[in-house]
Amino acid sequence: MTDVLVPSITPAPPIALAPSITPAAQVAGAMKGFAQEIGALSAFRMESCIHCGICAEACHYYIATEDPQYTPIWKIEPFKQAYKREQSALAPLYRLFGFKREVTADQLAHWQHLLFDSCNMCGRCSLICPMGIDIAALIEQSRHAMFEAGLAPKELYDKAAHQLATGQPEASAEPYRDQLLAIGVKFNVAVPMDEPDVDIMLCVPRTDIEHYPTAVAALASVMQHLECSCTFRSDGLVAENYGYYAGGKDWQRDISLRLIDQAIACHAKILLIPECGHAYTALRWEAADLYGKALPFKVLSVTEFLGEELKAGRLKLKESTQGTATFHDPCQLVRKGGVNEAPRELMKAMKVDLHELENHGGFSFCCGGGGGVLDIEQAKPLRYRTVEVKLREIDATGAQTLVTSCSDCRRTFDDAQAHFSWDKRPQSLLELVASNLLDSKLAETGAAP
Amino acid sequence: MDLLSFSRGVGLKVAMAIFCLGVVWRIFGFALLKIRRDYNKPRESILKYSIGGLMTTMARSWPHREFIGRTGPGEALGYSYHLGLFAVVLLYTPHILFLGSLVGVTWPGLPSSLITIIAVLTLTLFLAVLFRRVTNPVMRMLSNFDDYFSWFVTMLVLVTGLAATAHVGAPYETLLAVHILSVDLLLIWFPFGKLMHAFYIMPSRAINGALLARKGATS
């Protein structure tokens, strides 16, 4: 890896969404948002912290910078302060003796950097806490409060607003539906669209549509190989949920509802989440809560789906010519989502010579791009500094290639490759599977990795 | 009423009352808040994720292999002084007799000389803990009055206990009275600060561990 002088990581001034929001209204919004989040579990988590600071040692932002402000539990400090002052059992005493001051707008503005630019909600900190606190869950709740305060980063807010209104996080020259169909034509693979009655509903990361059309083709190719009854739906194509990234809980619900409604409309038994870690978290582990009842279908990541198909003998793979490879575990899929075995079973079936990272599986370091960080311009210098931790670890394996199963991770590594002139390009596990199907159409068209 | 009678009579009773009421108040303060139902289908059965929660209570007592290089010394320091405290509180014969009078059972203790050595070592570790808290940038940033006062009241019990055992500085009755008063102070402070983690640690590990295990996630 080439060493590059990393610029100062002093954050740019925070981006307030609406200049008309006064500081007092920001604080009121944040407090209201946070009060809505506080339940017995989150209060217990905040009560339990013993200020040991061990969580810093799990966080790639702290490890890369040694800057104490990146200590994970510190990232929720204003909200811990607000809880103790306003809602805890000892709140009257805290106020009487002035032990906990009121949260200020300046404080919240600074915490925008800590909650959005320097946290991927990867959850590694939640594994190290000796009190067992799920710090990542508290950070997600704090993001909700920041959204209510009008302090979600502009890039995430704008994309969330666009996705809420149109189904796409950004405008595109051609609608995503047409782009998907064009990918099918280009790679000579069937892209089922708007079928009325299927077993599986598919969706796609907009990252893949815009950056990795081969991954879209790979998904279609694998489904064709498995002879699945499946479809994309024009009105529910995008897997990512920018409401989740931005912290807008109502927006997250409405964006999820778009997919839920479409899955119900086509009578799907499975909603298949493509290679996108945060989409998996939003739909597999949060959507039903926002929906208010259990979902009438299963939510599976494509990686675990392929793992199940492999186990059932329906997915037939040939030996890969991949050479040595290492695998980056996407945090949301593996650490927080429990999809640990499937990627390794798939690589084993293709006889990939896997060189595990020093920190792998549930303990893997985040790529640094998740949680919307990849989209935040002012987070870039810090992100590059942080990803170096990961790149060094990858280089240390001696593996020739890097495989992963999340488009955002892939894009983060691609971006790092360009920035550092790194000698590796990340590959998609799904594409690797598609190119090693016994009847791989992708391999025939030359689109496979 | 002399100081000793006060410290182990009215003083102790008041301290115990504040301790018990305070602990209940503190726990009810969050336990009565709303509990959200999780509608997302679990990956694991309730039996499996309950076991996952129980496993986490034990697993978090020892750092994961991936973290031990960075956290080993700090955790060793933390657990060592806790073990020292447990030994001094629970295995010193006069303490066993006192606790036995409250709970109705007694158990074998360690020789007084060994307890004294453990107490001195624990005291040394306590000083090291304070040094670490004020010199480590992360801990210094996170620390507040609660951290330092909780350290102080616990340390005070240890110091006055050692002084009473060694009979130094004042008549034994006075030293014992001061020691028991320091215990009264600790009991009174207990529900107001971080010492409450003694009640929280196992449920916190178990609940969060079970919730992660519910998803099949790493815990």
**Structural Rg of chain A:** 22 Å
Q: Give the beta-strand count of chain B.
A: 0
Task: Give the count of helical stretches of chain B.
Answer: 10
Strand order of the largest sheet of chain A: 2-1-3-4
Beta strand % of chain B = under 5%
Give the SSE order of chain B as H and E letters: HHHHHHHHHH
Question: H/E element string of chain A?
Answer: HHHHHHHHHEHHEHHEHEHEHEHEHEHH
Please bin the fraction of helical residues of chain A: 40-55%
Principal-axis shape of chain A equals globular
Estimated structural class of chain B: mainly alpha
The CATH architecture term of chain B is Up-down Bundle
How far the N terminus sits from the C terminus of chain A, by CA atoms, comes to 22 Å
Low-confidence stretches of chain B: none
Question: Largest sheet of chain B, described in full?
Answer: none
Identify the CATH class of chain B.
Mainly Alpha
User: End-to-end distance of chain B, in Å?
Assistant: 55 Å
List strands and helices in order, with pairings:
The complex is a heterodimer of chains A (449) and B (219).
Chain A: H1 23-37, H2 40-48, H3 60-65, H4 77-86, H5 91-97, H6 105-117, H7 135-148, H8 154-166, H9 176-186, E1 200-202, H10 206-211, H11 213-225, E2 230-232, H12 242-246, H13 249-265, E3 270-273, H14 277-291, E4 298-301, H15 302-311, E5 324-328, H16 341-349, E6 353-354, H17 380-397, E7 401-404, H18 407-420, E8 426-428, H19 429-434, H20 441-445
Chain B: H1 3-8, H2 10-31, H3 46-59, H4 65-91, H5 93-103, H6 112-135, H7 137-142, H8 145-166, H9 172-189, H10 197-214
Helix pairs in contact in B: 2-9, 3-10, 4-5, 4-6, 6-8, 8-9
Q: What can be said about this structure in brief?
A:
The complex is a heterodimer of chains A (449) and B (219). Chain A has 20 helices and eight strands. Chain A is α/β, with parallel strands linked by helices.
